[in-house]
Amino acid sequence: MSSKDAFQINMTPEDLQGLKTRLGQGRLCREDLEALSKVLQLVVTLQNLLLKRRLSILGWLRRIFGIKTEKHSSEKQHIAKPALSSGRRGRNGREDYPGAKKVHVAHECYKSGDTCPECRRGKLVEDKPAVDYDWHGQAPVTLHVYFLQRFLCHTCKTSFTAKSPIAETAKTVDDSTDDEKVSRCNRNASANTMIALLRYMYGVACYRLAKIQGRLGIALAEATQHKMIQQVYEAARPVYVELIAVSAEGCLFHADDTAIKILDWLQGKGPPSQVSGKPHKKAQTSAILSKSSLGRTIVLYLTDEHPAGFHINNLLSKRESSSGSAIYMCDALSGNKVEKDFMVIQVYCLDHFRRQFYEIQSCYPSHCVHVLEELGKVYAVDAQAKAQGLNPEQRLDLHRQKSLEVMTNLGIWMQNELRLGRIEENSPLGKAMNYGLKRWTEFNEFLHTPGVPLSNSECERAIKMIITHRKNSLFYKTVKGAHVGDVIQSLIATCEQASINPFKYLTWLQENKAAVKKTPQAFLPWNMPA
After folding, report:
1. What is the pLDDT of residue 21?
2. What H or E segment, with its residue span, contains residue 298?
3. Structure pTM?
4. Nearest alpha carbon to residue 312 among 246, 240, 239, 248
5. H/E/C letters for each residue in 377-390?
6. Is 177 helix (H, G, I), strand (E, B) or coil?
7. What residue spans of 256-364 are helical by DSSP H?
8. Among 199, 349, 395, 397, which residue's beta carbon has the most beta carbons within 10 A?
């Protein structure tokens, strides 16, 4: 009997009802026993699959629908809920529209100091203005067409054209040092920036934007959009190179990566593998966060065939020896390991350790709930340190007071469960415990070194921009196109980390393109004038 035949149960509703009747009467035939044997074998096999592959019902639901949080119900008691605001109720006030055009309208009848027309005794005093809102819908990129009056002399053929109203006020791309001047379609720096933001920050593919623009009467072809994005890239590339050099001197690094598709590579045009010699087909985008002692955060995206650890090693090789040691936070994949020559303390994300138990808690509720509750206490201590605004040394002292005993007891408990044979090492629960115990030093470094974060969640949030772009655009055509995305997205993410408007910043770079090439360090995001 084949493995497929072992699970093949051919029964009609009438056959099932007959089986139930005979089962109740205790008169089972040979065929009934074979059917029940198959059912039992199917149930046992499915149960083993659920345990080995952690495919619990919750896991299926997570894969199909996704979940908003991985918080365990028992952890909520450790974290204080912020007080709900009773004033705003989700509405925006007049001060929440810094980009809106504001028009001050004077009263048509009265001014300050006039006699009150109602009581005829008091004087009018100017109060806080009332507000009226006027929303307008328009295409993402608008176009003004100026028809300049022109006169022609039929004798000497000289033409005289009216001066354009935007000749002095328009903010265009500085192409003074370029061999090829920018064309009319991409000389407007703000329009170029809007196209780049829609493409790489919000995931609007060029062909979709072309449809939107065309249906609203302002056609913007895909080829034109690519030219406009190229202008942003050319202005931003020197700053991107400078950011790589500056980020090497950071004191804390985060790294993560996600898969990306490059069509040329899928067609066999990728770089050859050093192992097999065959062209690479798989590409990935690595996200690297570098935090300096000044509190500045740089976000870098790099797309190629290498994992994040490769780029971290390249970054650390450019690091000055006088910069001292740094902290490197990542997940526990082998591709993220750092070379021993560098003065780096490598730590692992505690969220990944916690997730090992969260995903199998329906199979081993008592053990998993215990681990989740203990880790919940550690996260609560970290939230307390953040709420109190503690510096790294104070945070370390707080964790040593409240978290050291929790993590020590948790490690001893897992070792005893495995050593005494209460948990099978090859079971999902045993593998989860061994996953943590083998990396226990890296998971507990926050108890010994100031400034070590608990998780890599900040880098995972930064990589969401790449995922949004991947879900909407699906792929890059070439590796050059991927590099263009890396440069623009890196500057966008770095601006967001510094609370700087990326639209204003990228426009500023284009307006000063020649100066950016000469001194890119003067045009880093935090150097933009207010």
Report:
1. 85
2. strand 297-304
3. 0.81
4. 248
5. HHHHHHHHHHHCCC
6. coil
7. 263-264, 308-317, 350-358
8. 199
**Contact in structure between 376 and 72 (CB atoms under 8 Å):** yes
Burial of 420 (0-12, 13-18, 19+ CB in 10 A): exposed
d(CA 359, CA 357): 5
Cβ neighbour number for residue 466 with a 10 Å cutoff: 26
Two structure tokens written together for 28: 């089972």
Residues 272 and 274: their CA atoms lie apart, in Å, by 6
Q: Is the pLDDT assigned to residue 383 strictly greater than 90?
A: yes
Q: What are phi and psi of 35, to 5 degrees?
A: -65, -45
Tokens of 238: 């020197």
| CA nearest neighbour of 411 among 427, 431, 445, 434 | 434
Q: DSSP character for 474?
A: -
pLDDT confidence band for 90 (50 / 70 / 90): low
Backbone angles phi, psi at 342, to 5 degrees: -90, 150
> First CA to last CA across the chain, in angstroms?
77
pLDDT in tens, 124-158: 998 888 888 888 888 899 888 889 999 999 888 89
Let me know if 473 is exposed, middle or buried by CB neighbors in 10 A (0-12, 13-18, 19+). buried
Nearest-angstrom CA–CA distance, 464 and 299: 12
Instruction: Give tens-digit pLDDT for 248-271.
Output: 999 999 999 999 999 999 998 888
What distance in Å separates the CA atoms of residue 48 and residue 393, rounded to the nearest whole number? 47
- Give me 63's structure tokens: 């894969």
d(CA 191, CA 393): 47
Instruction: Name the amino acid, one letter, at 159.
Output: S
357 Cβ neighbours under 8 A, 6+ residues apart? 367, 368, 371, 372, 429, 432
CA–CA separation, 192 vs 409, rounded Å? 57
Q: Find the farthest-apart pair of alpha carbons in the chain and give their distance in angstroms, rounded.
A: 117
CB 516 within 8 A of CB 523: yes
Structure tokens at 368: 């998993």
